[in-house]
Amino acid sequence: xxxxxxxxxxxxxxxxxxxxxxxxxxxxxxxxxxxxxxxxxxxxxxxxxxxxxxxxxxxxxxxxxxxxxxxxxxxxxxxxxxxxxxxxxxxxxxxxxxxxxxxxxxxxxxxxxxxxxxxxxxxxxxxxxxxxxxxxxxxxxxxxxxxxxxxxxxxxxxxxxxxxxxxxxxx
Length: 171
Known about the structure:
single chain; 171 residues; mainly alpha; 7 helices; globular
């Protein structure tokens, strides 16, 4: 009996760490893109500022809790499970991740609006893996909620780390 409790703690620990690692990886990739494609990333940043803290706590409540829970029910709880019942994991995961990415398109006349599609497609693949691996919808829900939450502390920490790396590389 004690073993299953330990597995549950291990599972939750893995999900929390995977969520943070995924956020940091995507943040770092976007930061590198910003260095080499500043016009594209400034357009993307302007689009994403509409979802920021400056728009109030209700907006953040929606972005951090409501949207991730609803998206997980639709994309992993319904679409993935229906596809998975009819096909191999690879195809079911690709389909639900592609749909998840497409839903996140921000229509603009530039490539900036498609950046979120690309990284939410990757995020969707990881969330599909989490559901397949842990076989409970609560795991990708918490992963997604945390992924959206990490924006607050991680953006602050990552900016300090990147600034430090920039200073070290300049030497």
